[in-house]
Specification:
Length: 177
């Protein structure tokens, strides 16, 4: 409903045209010339179509004889087509601990690679439990190892960030050429 209101505000149709004279373009795209609005509406009615003001800022305004319903349909179709082409990038999160096993590391690495191949960003969180925080260098080594394992498909956005008892790193996919 709101789209129709916006479309009607954008284009004046038939009796909504307030100018006294208009430059008319017929349904075949031929320029008819400057006519009185009533004459232009009569020509549009004879063709069984609508008179639509397409350039209100021109002097005199430019009007075209077209099917308004078809114009609305084409604009709506174009809008939905551009909406389909949009890509939303999500941020996926993968959590690690410094005492992670080799197999668990490889499973998480494969999921990170999958997320990156889908053009998503990945937030890697390394959480320290208990007194593990006193050995931050182990966690930093793990994240550096992860960074070298994914260096061909991803790059790090910024440095490692220590927030309380966790270190975070944001990975973004490298654009393929």
């Amino acid at each position: 409903m709101e789209e129709n209101r916006i479309l009607e505000e954008k284009y004046k149709v038939n009796r909504a045209i307030t100018a006294s004279q208009v430059r008319l373009i017929d349904q075949n795209g031929n320029v008819v010339g400057v006519l009185n609005v009533k004459e232009a509406m009569l020509k549009a009615r004879e063709a069984g179509l609508d008179l639509v003001e397409i350039a209100p800022q021109a002097v005199p305004p430019v009007c075209k004889i077209i099917d308004y319903g078809k114009l609305k349909y084409e604009l709506q179709k174009k809008k939905s087509e551009t909406k389909k082409k949009q890509k939303f990038i999500e941020i996926k999160e993968v959590k690690f601990t410094p005492a992670i096993g080799e197999h668990d590391y490889k499973v998480k690495l494969s999921s990170i690679c999958k997320f990156l191949s889908e053009s998503n960003k990945v937030k890697v969180t390394l959480r320290f439990r208990g007194r593990e925080i006193s050995h931050k260098e182990i966690g930093e080594q793990l994240l550096n190892r992860l960074l070298t394992d994914v260096k061909e498909i991803a790059k790090s956005e910024g440095d490692l960030q220590l927030e309380g008892k966790q270190i975070t790193m944001l990975l973004s996919p490298i654009a393929s050429k």
